[in-house]
Known about the structure:
By secondary structure, the protein is mainly β. The longest helix is centred in the last third of the chain and has 11 residues, at 353-363. The N and C termini lie far apart (51 Å). InterPro entries: ConA-like_dom_sf (IPR013320), Glyco_hydro_7 (IPR001722), Glyco_hydro_7_sf (IPR037019).
Amino acid sequence: MKSLLIILAVVGLCYGQNAGTNTPEVHLDMPIQNCESGSCQSQSTKVVMDSNWRWAHETTGYTNCYDGNEWSPEFCPDADTCTANCAIDGVDQATWSGTYGVTASGGSLSLKFVTQGTYSTNVGSRVYLMESDSAYRIFYLKNKEFSVDIDTSQLPCGLNGALYFVEMEKDGGMSSYPTNKAGAAYGTGYCDAQCPHDVKFIAGKANSDGWKPSENDPNAGEGKYGACCFEMDIWEANSQAQSFTSHPCNVNGYHPCEGTECGDNGADRYSGVCDKDGCDFASYRNGVHDFYGPGLTVNSNSVITVITQFITADGSDNGDLSEIRRIYIQNGQTIQNAAVNFPGVTAYDSITEPYCNEIKSFFGDVDDHEAKGGLRNMGQSLGRGHVLVMSLWDDHYANMLWLDSSYPTDGDLNAPGTLRGPCPITSGVPSEVESQYASATVKFSNIKIGPIQSY
């Protein structure tokens, strides 16, 4: 019997590149509403499972190429040999729900946190929206409004039900990197502003050289290379806290990195090609502790319509991005975003260049957002087109405390920006949330894109 290899979900996982044939590939239907012409029409889009969650095996058999958190020395003695020897296989209808805990119905997608399958225990998932069975759906967001219904009521501290855009290649990298034979059809080509090293294949080649198994995650590790690109976080949240964030870079498109340009944590963090911190708008961190959460103004106990507007300076699709504005709708009520609530700080209620500059200065944060070109550069990336990502994950690096607790954990609780959510600093330990909250689920539905103020 074949043994499925499922990797624990962490930020920035992905892999490829040969396409296996042992399991037929099935993409789940998830239609969206395209309202860009002024009237809404249903678009027959689908979702594909990220390649990292797939079974990876030798191309001529069933033996795993990656086992535990290490590459097989037999099939992967070096990157070139590994790339030639290994394939990722399909995800059929039964595997979507039975192995990964992912279901779709109409325009709704549900991601379950932990699923006990026949051969494995799966943790988290990440999927991409497709326009066809071989290509990702590309979104051009400048001068547009993006809307989605989200249910985070079943997500406790330590989890992140995320929906975001990244500047991935439409075909998953097949045309740019000929050794990638799987492409978007198998969920390849992931990148983000963290320039993740745990991407198993980068630029069509195995990232096995210099691979270091993780010390606290039995199924993950890091390779020599990273995969960088612009990232626009629409929604990073659980039931306790939420944020949306712009992450510009000083390189265009999908960019493999090595060494300093990856901006690894530590001395190189702000020397890399992407702004890892980003310019975030998080109500709790901005001093409003009664806005989002169970029973609050934006009530995380119920479904929330999350609207994000990408406003340009001249009101055209080609203009410079000048503002990212957030609006909520819940139970028929329109709720404007909460404004910054600190004495002496301008009461901004959206992401603008002045907001990013002032709030980062107030928090004492490095303004890498401006250094990487700010909103104007972010807008240029959005003009080139982004892929929609939906995921559910826990955090083996910082226990998600950066999202929902006090961070850094040894920071002054009275210092502006330290408080990011109400969760205790002891929360979010992956082994604990995986055992205690296996059934945690996030749901995304009713996705729409259209003109500004079309909600």
